[in-house]
Specification:
- It is a single chain.
- The protein is 36% helix and 19% strand.
- The chain is globular, with a radius of gyration of 21 Å.
- With 350 residues, the protein is of the alpha+beta class.
- Strand 3, helix 3 and strand 4 form a beta-alpha-beta unit.
- The protein is built from 10 helices and 14 strands.
- The strands form 3 sheets. Strands 3-4-12-9-14-7-6-5 form an 8-stranded mixed sheet.
- Helix 4 crosses helix 6 and helix 9 packs across helix 10.
Amino acid sequence: MAATGDTYYDRPAELKAFDETKAGVKGLADAGIQEIPRIFIHQPEPLPISSTPFQIPIVDLGSTDRASTVEKIREASEKLGFFQVVNHGIPVSVMNEVVQGVRRFHDQDVEVKKRFYTRDPSRTVVYNTNFDLYSSPAANWRDTFYTYMAPSPPPPEELPEVCRDIQIKYSNQVLKLGGFLFQLISEALKLNPSHLGDLDCDKGLVFAGHCYPACPQPGLTMGATKHTDDGFLTVLLQDEIGGLQILDNQQWIDVPPTPGALVVNVGDLLQMISNDKLRSVEHRAHIIFESRAISEEGKITDEEDHCKALLIILKKQIKKENPHLSDSQLDRIIERRKALLVDISTESEK
């Protein structure tokens, strides 16, 4: 049982009933509800929202002064964990089309979307409301579909027809951008430009398209609660409405959309392998009455793959420093460290 105010209710039953509709949050919004269900009501956030105008650093990737670009990325990644990039090589027309593609997916008839609705992460396309619907204290006002686009792209015919072409095109371009960003970040860490790429940090890619429908009571819920991202990097494309906030000095800072820019943030894995030199910072998405779509690309993994990625990186680092070691010797060293890595992986999900 759970409580909202003075009222107790069967929360698990209400979660199950909502989930089984497979209509998502958008289904509630489209039905014209005036009050949000209790499962979406969050406890008030004690930390304030900054009233001081703030703009996260903007890095011009088209600059010919590479040293200056690297320094800006280093400073932003160490102090704030977030920065924006412009002149990143992805045309505005492609960015606009991928946002429209995400909208087209979420605007489809419920019966069409139901074919993709699942909680099975092994499916090519996973569409649902909240991956942690049954475990979180309160549900978020958000629907999402996602697909692992690299290193093993799915067959195109398995992707949603309404956004298939732009999903592939945009993913390929972000993967290329990610490779360049990892070169710059390697240099910011005083390493060879190919260092992080050699560790395969730039090989995986997940395309996630979020929808935050119009909400009749935006002050009671969240689009995404406070969290860090568990991968290496996240490259975020906001639509014109925005909603992203980052936590800095115990206050929430709005990150309004910058036309033509992409938001980049450091993930938990990158913080780990940089020995905490770079920061994976807590952030959230707050709800605005208007509906909005966000197309997000990130190098993210689930908990099992998260751990595997750490093991692979660790093995490559040990081999590089000790080339004389045989594979069997490497495996024994990794086995001795695996328990620690599993614990780190679990802690980072809390």
